[in-house]
Design a protein that fits this description.
2 helices, Alpha-Beta Plaits, alpha+beta, about 15% strand, globular
């Protein structure tokens, strides 16, 4: 069931980023890649990222993935309402 982004609080799920603990990017098998042509800047990816690996500078900028801390869980891709995030195999 898709989420109504208006009903989700304007904060990420967690408020403690992984960078306060350790870098987790080396665990990843797949990496999320944002297609800016499809992205509508709803920031649902940021809201659902369990590691606060999605960064948002301001509401006019696109979200960016901090690959040093992204584990590649795919939650951002799954929750994106426009399928603007592809999970790409690490090489």
């Amino acid at each position: 069931m898709p989420y109504d982004h208006e009903s989700i609080p304007p904060t990420p799920i967690t408020s403690v980023p992984s960078d306060q603990f350790l870098k987790t990017g080396s665990w990843r098998t797949f990496r999320p890649v944002i297609d800016r042509d499809k992205c509508i800047k709803c920031f649902i990816c940021w809201k659902f990222c369990p590691d606060v690996s999605v960064r948002v500078k301001d509401e006019d900028s696109y979200p960016e993935i901090d690959y040093e801390f992204c584990k590649g869980c795919g939650i951002c891709a799954r929750e994106c309402p426009k399928d603007a995030i592809d999970m790409v195999l690490e090489v």
